[in-house]
Amino acid sequence: MLTEVAGIKVPEGHAAEAARLVCAEYADEALYHHSVRAYFFGAAWAEERGLDYDRELFFVSALLHDLSLMPPFDSHTLPFEEAGGHLARVFTAGLGWPDARRDRAAELIVLHMRDDVSPDVDVESRLLQVGTSADVSGTGLEAFSPAFQAELVSAYPRLGFASRFVDLFRDQARRKPGCAAGELVAGGWESRALGNGLDRG
């Protein structure tokens, strides 16, 4: 794994490496790359603004945030982000994190599919929203230089991510139509995802 892109570094330590290993094992390569890119986008956004944030918490949450789209962790009743929050709580219990920190990891994952959170209120949740929005639908890409975008996509290629992710969300929408993914699909979100400027580089 490349641990630095455009001067932005991945945190060191057991928790970060464990999250990376689990994501690489259970996500397909396109989704794994997306999770890593989401971290780098969010971290770059924070550093550009001089925001202080918990790098380990953010990285672990970014690497776990979409794993409940994968069959081993998919819930047939819960929206994928809520199932992902439960997965994060189980994973971080294994790391020995205290309850409050486990709650935070779950919260970041649930909130990344909710309305925007102000960084003044919850900086790590905002970073995951920024990172996932930029990488999935291209929302907010103008905040990142073309050079940064190119370096990040070169380090972690898209690998047909947009069409793969649209298919995953369509599946969520079909089986759980009232979930946030279902609302996005119903609102025509696919065209933004498939038209993401990251795929035109």
Structure description:
InterPro entries: HD/PDEase_dom, HD_domain. Pfam families: HD. Residues 27-103 form the HD/PDEase domain. This is HD domain-containing protein. The protein is built from ten helices and two strands; from the N terminus they run E-E-H-H-H-H-H-H-H-H-H-H. 62% of the residues lie in helices and 2% in strands. The mean pLDDT is 96. With 201 residues, the protein is an all-alpha fold. It has a two-stranded antiparallel sheet with strand order 1-2. Helix 2 (29-48) packs antiparallel against helix 3, helix 4 (80-94) packs antiparallel against helix 5 (99-111) and helix 8 (161-175) crosses helix 9. The protein has one domain: Hypothetical protein af1432 (Orthogonal Bundle), CATH 1.10.3210.10. It is globular.
Query: In what order do the strands lie side by side in the largest sheet?
Result: 1-2
CATH-defined architecture: Orthogonal Bundle
How far is the N terminus from the C terminus? 22 Å
Helical proportion? 55-70%
Q: Which sheet architecture does the biggest sheet show?
A: 2 strands, antiparallel
Number of strands: 2
Strand content: under 5%
Structural class: mainly alpha
What's the helix-strand series? Answer: EEHHHHHHHHHH
Shape descriptor? globular
Summed up, the helix count is 10
Mean pLDDT across all residues, rounded? 96
Q: Give me the CATH fold name.
A: Hypothetical protein af1432
Q: How many domains make up the 3D coordinates?
A: 1
Which parts are unreliable, with pLDDT below 50 for 5 consecutive residues or more?
none
Pfam families: HD
Domain HD/PDEase: 27-103
Protein name: HD domain-containing protein
InterPro entries: HD/PDEase_dom (IPR003607), HD_domain (IPR006674)
